[in-house]
Specification:
Shape of chain B: globular
Low-confidence stretches of chain A: 575-589
Number of helices of chain A: 14
Order of helices and strands of chain B: EHEEHEEHHEHHEH
Strand order of the largest sheet of chain A: 5-4-3-17
Strand content of chain A: 5-15%
Helix content of chain B: 25-40%
CATH class of chain B: Alpha Beta
Helix content of chain A: 25-40%
Number of strands of chain B: 7
CATH topology of the domain at 98-289 and 444-484 in chain A: Cytochrome-c3 Hydrogenase, chain B
CATH topology of chain B: Rossmann fold
Number of domains of chain B: 1
Distance between the termini of chain A: 19 Å
Structural class of chain B: alpha/beta
CATH superfamily of the domain at 98-289 and 444-484 in chain A: Cytochrome-c3 Hydrogenase, chain B
Low-confidence stretches of chain B: 90-101
Distance between the termini of chain B: 45 Å
Structural class of chain A: alpha+beta
Radius of gyration of chain A: 24 Å
Shape of chain A: globular
Strand content of chain B: 15-25%
Mean pLDDT of chain B: 84
Oligomer: heterodimer
Strand order of the largest sheet of chain B: 3-1-4-6-5
CATH architecture of chain B: 3-Layer(aba) Sandwich
Mean pLDDT of chain A: 90
């Protein structure tokens, strides 16, 4: 039988031609997607798999919990600060440490800066190229491009001469044969809908964003010290303030942070958001890619306004779970409850004593078990086709109360919208109004992309709010940045457990730690891409990537642009969930049609 | 001003991931170089990890860039190779050379697009023996090449006219380029059983 319906309500049909896209991630690590398409090239079955990840306990067991952040910071090259913060929060939770107000403000600022920079880079440097045809920009009329630009924004760089210069620069770059960042794409595909002028505008902003994002990184340099890997400490932040300028972070640096915040808000609101709207207006009929977005969404909540208060009411971006698309109810999420977050391995290359059961991360085990299913094609070192009825991924299948969940900016936005957060509702309703679209339109690939843009703007504005609060606190005379009362292991309980969570740019991230005799006994992370790239679970529920691809028509199965669009809309980061294993792996994305 | 504001004459960058055995070669080299020598202002030693685009603020401000990395040239494990200037991107474009090529090749191309820098480039790479040992350290045949890699680096720096000298006193905690708990000795002795 080739046609089935999953418990989470998706029809799968494996009878059609199989298309394999490997690897799909433009950053690092391997994600592979296999789909079956019907006679009309519509995706009827989807399989998401990632290569090789091994549990953090392999590197952390027996080490000092206060050092864990430095190790977790190295598991991903893109989400460095995110893992480190999650780790110090987990240890603080386990040891009952309260952090000072300034440490909370700095952490919030650093995470907001990370979201601002990461979303901006993702949009222009990874995702826009799925919608923007760079080569087509060479055909644009610079004068018409200028008119288009001036009709949508007051951003000053918009003259015909400016666009003529960018076009000339692009032409030299293309002619040099060094396409570099632009090399991994399907230029000229009929799936691209923008006129040449909109393409040229977007390419210009690609270059401006590349330049500008370097400014945002400075916020991490100022507060985190030794960048590119910021410093963290259990109990607070390892930096100090001296407003009179005797060492540490002085007014000159704080003024620089303030200026970067202002410039970030301006760039995002005058360049990114208008571009997003302009591009979306040409793709309004491309309504695919919703998948789990209209059903099950999860956010842990982020940015405690007051330090050490983890209630959702205190979160600048409150979290929760939406089940079955019912926006009238936001479920509370408890990461300590063994019945809520669980990981399954029935379809993952690991083994559990009972694979029908899930394990809560505090009880998590990572025992690799790599074997191909009976219907797989190829060999273990050269897999031609996976057998999704057997084990088929090194990514585990996390579930919340048994449900497959989508995480990320769209999940955060839908949860906050359902909670009635005014700022979020205004942003979402405003964008939908401008594009003439109804609310359900956000449950799509474009909705995911739009939520990321809106959140980028929200995060930049929130940096201003947090910065002003921090300055008020500093000026009131509180300069404390760390609480070292429980630094010494003699003050710790013999056995303790903790959980730390962060809403990373890519979604809900949790670290679960078990400390015994002052050393790490077990350490498990459930990362955002594990939720989204999840394989099937024992009941057959498919994961967020798999669900999102179903029903999407492809212009040409040999050019899987539509698959890339939807997968990139999740901002996949496989470095922490997987690792590049093949030293001479394919340089570009390969596509095989069988 | 924070250091990301300044122009960098010479950036010496270790690339890789210390958590994956021979992937840590680049980081270990730059740590050893830092432990052995003192450099003048304008020379910056950095543990770049696998940071990709996050490195752009430094790479695009550097006139000269010296990279230590684990690379795949299809050589014998532990074999060392030095590539210079235009050979670096060309080689990278032809075949996957670095484990982080997607990330770092983009950084180089983007830096060139933005600022025309770095003007001079040298890559000192080693062929890894093993990568898929999570939590492991350098294999003996790779570790044995650190001294030679440092000698290559010193030769390249002399050619570029960079003035450096032997450290007179041992490296102090605040002179490290990465967190102490990740330095090779504590990393290796703390490995879980």
């Amino acid at each position: 039988m080739t046609e089935t319906t999953t418990p989470n309500g998706f029809k799968l049909d494996t009878s059609g031609q199989r298309v394999v896209v490997d690897p799909i991630c433009r950053i690092e690590g391997h994600l592979r997607i296999e789909v079956n398409v019907d006679d009309n090239n519509v995706i009827r079955n989807a399989v998401s798999t990632g290569n090789m990840w091994r549990g953090l306990e392999v590197i952390l067991k027996g080490r000092d919990p206060r050092d864990a952040w430095a190790f977790t910071e190295r598991i991903c090259g893109v989400c460095t600060g995110v893992h480190a913060l999650t780790s110090v929060r987990a240890v603080e939770d386990a040891l009952g440490i309260q952090i000072p107000a300034n440490a909370n403000h700095i952490r919030n600022l650093m995470m907001l800066a990370q979201h601002t920079q990461d979303h901006l880079v993702h949009f222009y440097h990874l995702h826009a190229l799925d919608w923007v045809d760079v080569v087509s920009a060479l055909k644009a009329d610079p004068r018409a491009t200028s008119e288009l630009m001036q009709s949508i924004t007051s951003w000053p760089k918009s003259s015909p001469g400016y666009f003529r210069d960018v076009q000339a620069r692009l032409k030299r770059f293309v002619e040099s044969g060094q396409l570099g960042p632009f090399s991994n794409a399907y230029w000229g595909s009929a799936a691209y809908k923008l006129p040449p002028e909109a393409n040229l505008m977007a390419v210009s902003h690609y270059l401006e964003a590349l330049d500008f994002q370097r400014e945002i990184v400075k916020i991490h340099t100022i507060f985190g010290g030794r960048n590119p890997h910021p410093n963290w400490v259990v109990g607070g932040m390892p930096c100090s303030f001296s407003l009179d300028g005797t060492g540490g972070i002085n007014m000159e640096w704080l003024n620089l942070v303030s200026s970067i915040i202002d410039r970030s808000i301006e760039f995002i609101d005058k360049v990114y958001i208008p571009d997003l709207k302009a591009i979306a207006s040409f793709y309004k009929e491309w309504t695919y890619g919703g998948g789990l977005a209209g059903k099950n969404l999860l956010s842990y909540g982020e940015y405690p306004d007051v330090a050490n208060d983890w209630s959702q009411e205190n979160m600048l971006m409150p979290g929760g779970a939406i089940i079955g698309g019912d926006l009238s109810k936001v479920h509370e999420v408890d990461l300590r409850d063994p019945e809520q977050v669980q990981e399954f391995v029935a379809h993952s290359w690991y083994t559990y004593p009972d694979e029908n059961q899930g394990l809560h991360p505090w009880d998590g085990i990572t025992e690799p078990h790599f074997e191909l299913g009976p219907n797989a094609k190829g060999t273990k070192t050269n897999i031609e086709q996976l057998d999704e009825n057997a084990k088929y991924s090194f990514i585990k299948a996390p579930r919340w109360r048994g449900h497959a969940m989508e995480v990320g900016p769209l999940a955060r936005y839908v949860v906050a919208y359902a909670r009635g957060e005014e700022e979020i509702k205004d942003q979402v309703d405003g964008l939908l109004h401008d594009l003439g679209l109804p609310l359900p339109a956000i449950f799509s690939t474009l909705g995911r992309t739009a939520a990321r843009g809106l959140e980028c703007s929200w995060a930049a504005h929130k940096m201003r709010y947090v910065f002003d609060n921090m300055m008020a606190n500093l000026k009131a005379g509180d300069t404390a940045t760390a609480n070292m009362d429980k630094w010494e292991p003699e003050t710790w309980p013999k056995v303790t457990k903790g959980v730390g969570h962060v809403e990373a740019p890519r979604g809900a991230l949790g670290h679960w730690i078990h400390i015994k005799d002052t050393k790490i006994e077990n350490y498990q992370a459930v990362v955002p891409t594990t939720w989204n790239a999840s394989p099937r679970d024992p009941k057959g529920n498919i994961g967020a990537y798999e669900a999102a691809l179903l029903g999407t028509p492809m212009v040409d199965a040999e050019q899987p642009l539509e698959i890339l669009r939807t997968i990139h809309s999740f901002d996949p980061c496989l470095a922490c969930s997987t690792h590049v294993m093949t030293p001479d792996g394919e340089e570009l994305t390969t596509v095989k049609v069988r | 001003m924070p250091d990301s504001e300044e122009h960098i004459d010479t950036l010496i960058l270790g690339i890789g991931n210390v958590l994956w055995a021979d992937e840590g070669f680049g980081i270990r080299c730059v740590e050893e170089l830092n432990a052995a020598y003192e450099f003048p202002d304008g020379v910056r030693l950095m543990d770049g990890g696998t940071q990709g685009m996050f490195l752009l603020p430094w790479v695009s401000r550097a006139s000269r860039l010296l990279i230590f990395d684990a690379i795949d040239f299809g050589l014998e494990p532990g074999e060392l190779r030095v590539i210079r200037d235009d050979d670096v991107p060309r080689y990278m474009g032809a075949k996957k050379v670095s484990m982080h090529q997607t990330g770092f090749q983009e950084v180089l191309a983007s830096a060139r697009l933005l600022s025309g820098r770095p003007e001079r480039l040298a890559l000192i790479g080693v062929q890894p023996q093993q990568l898929d040992d999570y939590g492991g350290s350098l294999r003996p045949c790779v570790r044995a090449r650190i001294t030679e890699a440092l000698a290559e680096a010193c030769g390249q720096l002399r050619d570029w006219g960079v003035d450096y000298r032997q450290r007179e006193r041992p490296l102090q905690a605040d002179e490290r380029i990465g967190p102490g708990e990740l330095e090779m000795q504590s990393y290796e002795t703390g490995r879980p059983l």
